[in-house]
Amino acid sequence: MSEAKAPPSSPEHEPQWYYLKAGKKCGPVSPVTIHEYLEQGELQPDDLAWRAGSTTGAYSGKWKT
């Protein structure tokens, strides 16, 4: 017997993210894009980001990349 594997994640099934930049709501973007923005400094420690459907956001400076 072989174990069933989960299907690969596709962009339409990934959680979408939004963020505030200079007071403007931006997005949706993929999780990969959010991490790229963090690594590149596009998101600053005082920028808020949240997943679609979430009722709260988090300052990106509190995230680990």
Read across the widest sheet, the strand sequence of neighbours is 2-1-3-4
For the secondary structure, the number of strands is 4
Q: Structural class, please?
A: alpha+beta
Low-confidence stretches: 1-9
Distance between the termini: 38 Å
What would you say this structure looks like, in words?
The chain is of the alpha+beta class and 65 residues long. Helices cover 15% and strands 26% of the residues. The protein has one helix at 31-40; strands spanning 17-21, 24-29, 48-51, 58-59. The chain has a four-stranded antiparallel β-sheet. β1 and β2 form a beta hairpin. It is globular and about 25 Å long. The N and C termini lie far apart (38 Å).
Give the topology.
Elements: E1 17-21, E2 24-29, H1 31-40, E3 48-51, E4 58-59
Antiparallel strand pairs: 1-2, 1-3, 3-4
Task: From the structure above, extract its key features.
disordered N terminus; 65 residues; 1 helix; alpha+beta; 15% helix
Quick description:
It contains one helix and four strands; from the N terminus they run E-E-H-E-E. It has 65 residues and is α+β, with helices and mostly antiparallel strands.
